[in-house]
Each structure stands twice: as structure tokens, then as C-alpha cells.
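re: ur question from yesterday

yeah so i grabbed the chain u mentioned. its 413 aa long if i counted rite. heres the sequnce exactly as i have it in my notes:
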Amino acid sequence: MGAIWRIRCALRGPVSPDRPILTEGESVRVLTVVDALRLGGAETLIAQLARVSAGADIELSVLSLHGRSPELSKLEPLLRESGVVPEYLDVRRTLDVPRFRRLVSHLKTTKPDIVHAHLEMAMTMAIPAARLAGIPAVGTFHHVHRPLSGRASARERLALEIATRSAATIFVSQASLTSFADRYRKGRPVPASWTVVHNGIDLDYFTPGPGPGLSPLPADLDLAGHPVVTVLAALRDFKGITHAIDAWPAVLARHPDARLLLVGSGSEEQDLRAQVARLQLTDSVIFAGMRSDIPDILRGSDLTVLPSIYGENLPTVLMEAGGCGRPVVASDVGGISDIVADGETGLLVTPGDAAGIAAAITSLLDDPERGHRMGQAGRRRMERLFDARLWAGALHTVYQKAIDTDGRVEVST
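ran it thru and got these C-alpha cells back, copy pasting raw so excuse formatting
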């Protein structure tokens, strides 16, 4: 409790009055703080932002709270490709007081114009540290609230309380903001610091293939000549992959050469492998693990499926599929309908409806020309709404306002 009290006290203090004022046209120096450099949706977005940030007058640096490890630094090569060399703080737990002090010292030494914290641990540590260092800060939530208990509930509540006292609390979809307001602000006004800023992707990286038709899939997958339906997601319960597997026998009944490609890893992998074996699908369902050649996989897939049952906010993979000109089948949950225009860029299905998933997949495999038209429409929609350059420009506006107001925010209780 002592550490939490110190964090709350830090949030009451003003930012430094001696901080330099930016001149027009000067780049904003942003320190992006994230829990770890995993290959998750929120983390990979940072690499995409890095590729376009200079064009929005943003000078980006990245700090991972967790230390470097095979699992927690997989994003580093993508960041380095974008010209960003990340640093690591080696935090052991959320309320790690020695590392918190080291973070404050790091901020006082490097003096970024603003700190942008992504995910709960980063917000809980970096926003108070920025306040103590006299630097404005903002935080982003990348998920839709769902019922929690115990420590998970306490961590989310603390992160939200801290983020709400930052210069801006960013939610990446209206569905996300509404879910947090319903849980934590029922009967009270939404704080002035809360705002929605859609993420975006680098559409120069996620592009359609160079010619007509599908591009070849990576050779090591050995899928040449097969219709391929790809699920690109962490193998976790809320992703609903079990329902895609349940749907697969009905797809095979009509398209016996089709293959279901599962790209990702996670806690449900063994259960999903057992389900595949039980349904005698081992020849047609491929577990590909974590991969970094995602654009190549999307360009070579007939369609992408995201069968989530809850918890989705603004899934990056659906933007990436659209950027690559591929149609999608996805559950109508969270902010997914912000990305997918049902019947235009893909098909939305009821969460958990294996029969509905099978019907949607089969309809697109039956009519490749329809899938092609949806993919083209998806690309146009991404260019209009989810280009990372638009996202970077919107963030620059948020950053500039935070800097101009010295990070001050009024919070109604």
C-alpha cells in the first residue's frame, strides 16, 4: 500500500514549469513505454507507428519495462528495422520501487517532450514517474473491459485511476471507452481526459500482392495448391479458435483440399491440438507457431478468420488483412465492426457460432471473385480509416495539446 500511496501523491503534483516550449514544425520527442516487447497486437502497432512517425513530426523512442528475453523481446528486430533501438528497464513486478526510481531518473536524464504508456503495467509506473520528472504523459488502453476479480481487477482499476489523471486517456475504439465507462463511471460523467483515437497500420508494409490472384505462401508451410484459411491470433480462450476448429469439418465437406492455418502460440495450444486430433483433422489443420512474415502469409491466404468470443477491441490482424487486400470472417464483438463492413469487406458472424463460421468461410471459398472484391474494398477502407499516418497525425494532436497545457487535466468524481 505504501507504493500505491506514493504513486497517488506523485499524480497530485504539477509537471515542471521549466519544461521547454515546442516551436511550430519541431518534432515531438515521444518516449513510448510498454510492458514488454512481445509480438502481441498492441506491441506490434508500436513498430508500425515507428515506421511512419517521422512523417508526422514525431521522434519515437521505446522503453520496455520487462528485461530482454527470448519471449519478451521478440518485437526488437521489427523496431530496429524501423530505426528504433529499444531500451529495457528489467522491472520484476508492477510496484517495483527501485525500478520506479530508476525510471524517474531515466526520464529526468533523457527529457522527452512527452511519455506515452501502453498497457496496464506501463501506465501504472510510467505516468507517475513522468509526473515526478516534470514531463506530460498519456496512456492507451488496448482492450475492452471484461469482468475481472482479485488482483487482475485491482491492477486494471489502479491503471485506469492513474491514466485518468494523465493528460489524455486514450481508448482505441468507442467500444473500449464505453465498456470502461459502464464498469467504472456508471452514473457519473466520462472524464474530460478520456478520448478515442483509432490505431492504424503501415499500409506501405501491409500491401496486396504484386500481381493478380494470391501470392505464394512461404515455402516452409508446404501449402501450395491448397485453399488456405488463416487464423492469426494468440492461442487463448477468448480468441474462440475452438469454434473455428469445430467449423472445419463442414468446410472440408465442401472443400476437401482446404487447410486451416493457425498462426500464433498461447496457453490453449495443447487443448486445441487435442481437439484437432479428436476430430481427425490433423492433416488439414496446421499449427504454424509464432511468425514474423505476416504480410506474406496474409497475401497467400484465401481469407482470414478471427472467431473471438469476447474481449476484442480493435484487432490489428483485421486491419492487416484489409491492407493486404484479403477478405475476412470475424465475430461481431467489441470494436470489430469498426474495421469490418459486413458484406462489403468481409462477413461478421455471431460469436461462438461454429455453423455460422463454416457457412461464411464456405461462401467465400465457393466464390473467389466475391472474396477478391471484398479484399479490394477492405484495402480502400483501411486507406480511408486505418492508415498509420492518420493515427500518427491524431496522436501528434493529442501530444501537442498535452504539452501546451502542461499535462493538466480536470477529473470529476
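noticed a couple things. The mean pLDDT is 92. also Residues 213 and 372 are 8 Å apart (CA to CA).
anyway ttyl
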